[in-house]
Amino acid sequence: MSSGQNERREMTGAEMVVQALKDNGVKHVFGYPGGAVLPIYDEIFQQDEVEHILVRHEQGAGHAAEGYARSTGKAGVLLVTSGPGATNAVTPLQDALMDSIPLVCLTGQVPTSLIGSDAFQECDTIGITRPCTKHNWLVKDVNDLAAIIHEAFHVATTGRPGPVVVDIPKDVQFAKGIYVPPQTAPRTSYQPKVQGDLDKIKAAVELMAGARKPIIYSGGGVINSGPEASHLLRELVDLTGFPITSTLMGLGAYPASGKNWMGMLGMHGTYEANMAMHDCDVMICIGARFDDRITGRLTAFSPNSKKIHIDIDPSSINKNVRTDVPIIGDVGRVLEDLVRLWRASAKADKKALHPWWEQIAKWRARDSLAYKMNHDVIMPQYAIQRLYALTKDMDTYITTEVGQHQMWAAQHYHFEKPNRWMTSGGLGTMGYGLPAALGVQIAHRDALVIDIAGDASVQMTMQEMSAAVQHEAPIKIFILNNQYMGMVRQWQQLLHGNRLSHSYTEAMPDFVKLAEAYGGHGIRCEKPDELDDAIKEMIAVKKPVIFDCRVATLANCFPMIPSGKAHNEMLLPDEATDEAVANAIDAKGRELV
Amino acid sequence: MNAQLQPTGSAYFIAKETEKPENHTLSVLVDNEPGVLARVIGLFSGRGYNIESLTVSETEHEKHLSRITIVTRGTPHVLEQIKHQLERIVPVHRVVDLTVRSQELGQERPMERELALVKVAGTGEARVEALRLADAFRASVIDANTEHFIFEITGKGSKLDQFIAIMKPLGLVEICRTGVAAMNRGPQGM
After folding, report:
1. Which residue numbers delimit the Thiamine pyrophosphate enzyme central domain (chain A) (predicted)?
2. Domain A198-365 is found in CATH 3.40.50.970
């Protein structure tokens, strides 16, 4: 990776930053200049190996780096200035922490002599970002700088991936010191366990071989582990014949066209996935963490199953749900052993699974994703279905914002490959999708990158449209515009007597004119029979597009596990009358989310 | 379905805690670098864990290692989480739950000691009584004039509590306690 001539030579801190980025294989940096990072920007100006993508707000840089990271499997890098630059990056840092996305955030800092003096654009970046990073460093000596940046990349990308911050005072950027190339010996206190315990894996194989009602529940850890892990997951499903469901973060690890695919599980998951989770006798959780949106009411979560949990983070084990066979290790490595041991010892008794599959077929027959088609108004589900139908054979990447549109996208857009689906799961950050799409497009110049957006979310980071135009990133922003914060409105209907407090956006920009103002292309579509042509136009335009898709304003996202209910107490679309919706959640739930 | 379980009416669950909270003493071996203590205590405040006592000092100068001793209170489930969450912190080398370890070794508790400095001011009978009691508690006088003593006392927390309580009516002015230092009995290291 490193060029030999640069090893151990003297250079300034700012030069070291750029050299260290090159030595860690960085091709793109998302950032925004400011006083405390000017020396680094000066170095960036004088080279062309590392391309800098200028955003319009540091939050945009962070989400773009996240999209870049999720779609490539490499670390996303952002460069921001001190004070407001750093604080604006906090939201994407926490987002990346919760979704285990490798980010390296370089922040400028006021000169070391001024730290603590309330200097202009000073903030305690390390203190502020400590709880929202995997680790962070303040560099006080230029001779430590190179080693710290190398370590930052190592920590961000290994073990359970996550965001890191390196805070670099301006005097350190100017100072001269000795550059050291990336070394292989990491610090002794950080050694993530990647290889699973073989005895535990054997116990898992035994449990799986005896299962009559098994289910595989996979998550974002499979994607993070790399393409090989997804490949092994498919192999495991084929070998065992087990049904498989996935979290929001794990979509694409197993193909949606696969015959064992049950759809997503959880609060807005399919009926068959949630019922199977509830009734199973053996659950194999692979790289997922029993999040509260997944489990429903914990005390009624899959009451009669033995649970196998594969995770690289020991703190995920037994955190929310008690596990019978915990396996700590990298999903890819563990699956390798698991598949090998299964081949050697267990023979899939697929006949024994027949009654289970018959039961699943009955649940499937409920068709829980069904909705009432309308010929005058575009139903949001229909919009996603048409978008899927018209883009599925292309090299497509999907990002989303947060809300109803995100759940509809997860339900109705079907993913065949990993790294094709970028969404804010853990933190639920509105405004994630547009900059994330920019990041994806920078990494995959010729791909079709679509941000499936909501009208409220997209306005949170709309300014990055300007960055997309500048960098000729032809992202497509497909807005399901219902003029409400749809998920907020849905919860107000469920929990608060349909009193729609501030969830209606009374002044909505003209998205077509807005697109044009930014130098992009705007499309509006209001009729179902015009939708296909409009989507085709969107795909054909070779510049950033804002697609204002006017959808039914009051559609609710179903199926749904109402708050406080178990997996087998789902509210299905055909049962969701106004009365059922109004009474779905009892009084106690109003205290909580 | 389990009919006796009451739904909370929310996607967040406040499960009834069936386990009883216990006091445990943790030893945490960390790299002695800036901010490491903030990482540890930030974890406790951020995740809502309790700190009953906290003691920190560098223990191996050449290796830049510090040892943090934390007395915390929680259910066994929470205590297991605390241990794993501490282990995630990059500069943390090892976390040992001394209380669990002592049980594994067939011992009742780890060895735990605390030091206190106790200032008592007064004259006459109270002053004589304070000195007499200090002697009974094996507290030593480290500073004195005709109107005050500073006692140094070492022992279990309960002994210190008792000593301080007794000194209260005898002119107690000021107390400083170190927090708990602890290790397990026996020849093995942590």
Report:
1. 201-338
2. no
CATH homologous superfamily of A4-178: Thiamin diphosphate (ThDP)-binding fold, Pyr/PP domains (3.40.50.970)
Q: What part of B 90-109 touches A (C-beta under 8 Å)?
A: 90-93
| Residue ranges with strand state E in B61-147 | 65-74, 92-97, 111-121, 140-145
User: Bridge-partner residues for A214, per DSSP?
Assistant: A282
Please say whether the dihedral angle defined by the alpha carbons of residues B42, B43, B49 and B52, taken in this order, is positive or negative. negative
Do A332 and A324 touch, CB atoms closer than 8 A? no
User: A–B: how many Cβ contacts below 8 A?
Assistant: 97
Q: Residues of A with catalytic annotation?
A: 58, 120-121, 170, 487
> Which phi and psi angles does A474 have, rounded to 5°?
-80, 55
Residue that has been written with the tokens 């990647």 in this structure? A194
Instruction: Mark yes or no for CB contact B13/A130 under 8 Å.
Output: no
Q: Is B4 on the interface with A (CB under 8 A)?
A: no
Instruction: Name the pLDDT band for A559 (thresholds 50, 70, 90).
Output: very high
Distance between CA atoms of B60 and B114, rounded to whole angstroms? 20
Continuous H helices in A26-75: 38-45, 58-72
Are B67 and B116 contained in the same domain? Answer: no
Maximum CA pair distance of chain A? Answer: 73
Structure tokens at A100: 């285990």
* CATH class, A380-550 region: alpha beta
Domain containing B169 equals 111-183
pLDDT digits (tens, 9 = 90+) for A111-126: 999 999 999 999 999 9
Q: What's the CA gap between A500 and A503, in Å, rounded? A: 6
Amino acid sitting at position A49? E
For the question of an ipTM over 0.95, the answer is: no
Neighbours of A181 (CB within 10 A): 17
The verdict on pTM exceeding 0.80 is yes
> A525-555: per-residue pLDDT in tens?
999 999 999 999 999 999 999 999 999 999 9
**Three-state helix/strand/coil letters over A468-487:** HHHCCCCCEEEEEECCECHH
Two structure tokens written together for A220:
């974002």
Burial of A46 (0-12, 13-18, 19+ CB in 10 A): exposed
Find tokens 């199926």 and name the residue: A559
